[in-house]
Amino acid sequence: MRDQWSSRIGFILSSAGAAIGLGAIWKFPYMTGMNGGGAFFLLFIAFTLIIGLPLLITEFIIGRGAQREAVSAFKKLAPESGWQVIGYWGVAGSFILLSFYAVVGGWVIIYSIMSIFGSVITENANYEQLFAMITGDPLIAISGLGLFLMISVTIVSFGIKDGIEKASKVMMPLLFIFFIVLVIRSVTFEGAAEGLRFFLQPDFSKITAEGILYALGQSFFALAVGFSVMVTYSSYLGKDVSLPFSAASVSLMNIFVSLLAGLAIFPVVFSFGLEPEAGPGLLFMVLPSAFAQMPFGEVFLTLFLLLFLFAIFTSAFSMLEIITSAVTARKNYSRSRVVWISGLIVFIAGIPAALSSSKLADFKLFGKTVFDASDFLVSNIMLPGGCLLMALFIGIRMNRSLMKQEFSYGNRLSSGTYQLWFQIMRWLVPVTIVIVFLNSLGVI
User: Cα(407)–Cα(48) distance, rounded to whole angstroms?
Assistant: First the structure.
């Protein structure tokens, strides 16, 4: 018998955990900083609600409708066809994503350990140098990568209900609470108003075609859509749960956390004279600066880092789950064995990304380090590509009556709501993805 979520709230929190991780807390602030602030945030919200939310509902419908993991779901819903490539695309994309995602998870583990021993917030500390030291030391970076994957594998090996769901129910609410505490302190710094203006006041003159693509990719990255992760998660779901309500809950929680991340980060950035365009290291320079100004700052920093780490773990769980379930659905291997072997392969694949700030800093792929090239490939090519394939599958191939049934279970939404979702998926989503992508390439 397949494992199942024990409750609707467990599914929603676990799905939110899959979405709310590096996308909302780490990547969103620095992408916003590099792409003009408030205008990027507004585009991100629009893409999340208009494109991301319908796509999330789509993945939920496919997963629960098939009651199978990603690859098998498309095989069942479209037998003897090539549509199963969407599932394989998701498994491959999750693998690449996890290989560099785990590198950042390793950074957070190192920061957490250092903070526990009181080695982050120190007198006259230079947080830019600290970040450069952690990411630039090959042994530290690879050790962090390995430790992050070891913990992730251990949790996922326990399964859906006893592993992923139990952990998500405890840690996700705590993350919200600590984020709100951080925001309250952040907006009271002298000079915080300038940071708030940067984040909340749109200036569309700063938006480029590439920035629009990044905003679209960020909405996919932050909601974990495009790689069939949510197809796999929803396959463990009962028929009494409303998929549109669950998708809306996850989307709004994700926007809210992104808002909190911006409110926590940018007031501090401008208060301390940091550069909002600082890139991937922005969060690691800002958080210690903020907590250093609080009573018991090191304690609060440690707690926040541990909760942030868990948010990263919950996203990693989803990526490992899609890889694991794809293998166990085809081979009669034990779940634990598959998870551990997958984790080892991801660790090996992640080493080049871990060395992108040290031994492989001068090695470039299309002008980018291995880490940045992997990020660009996943966020701006593979995720939009996966979402486009998903939209085409819904519009062309999937059984209409099954779609309507899955959309309607557990709620009393009108048939007009279903038609609106279907037409958005059939026309608006694919057209938008193609236009944004071609525009970024300068074709249109």
Answer: 19
Contact present, 340 and 325 (Cβ < 8 Å): no
Burial 81-90 (b: 16+ CB within 10 A, else e): eebbebbebb
Residue type present at position 382? M
For the segment 231-272, what is each residue's pLDDT rounded down to a tens digit? Answer: 988 888 888 889 999 999 989 988 988 999 899 888 888 887
Domain ranges of the chain: 8-440
Answer for the pair 290, 264: CB distance below 8 angstroms, yes or no. yes
Specify the pTM. 0.86
Radius of gyration of the chain from its Cα atoms, rounded to whole angstroms: 21
Give the CB-side neighbour count of residue 292, counting CA atoms within 13 A: 18
| Residue 342: C-alpha distances to residues 138, 175, 230 (Å) | 23, 28, 19
Is domain 8-440 in CATH 1.10.4160.10, yes or no? Answer: yes
Q: For 157-210, how does the pLDDT look when each residue is reduced to its tens digit (9 = 90+)?
A: 776 566 566 666 777 777 778 788 888 888 888 889 999 999 999 888 888 888
Question: Strand, helix or coil at 131?
Answer: helix
CA distance 71 to 182: 41
Looking at the DSSP bridge assignments, the partners of residue 368 are 365
3-state secondary structure of 365: strand
Instruction: Tell me the HSE value of 153 on the side-chain side, using a 13 A CA sphere.
Output: 20
The distance in angstroms from the start CA to the end CA of the chain is 51
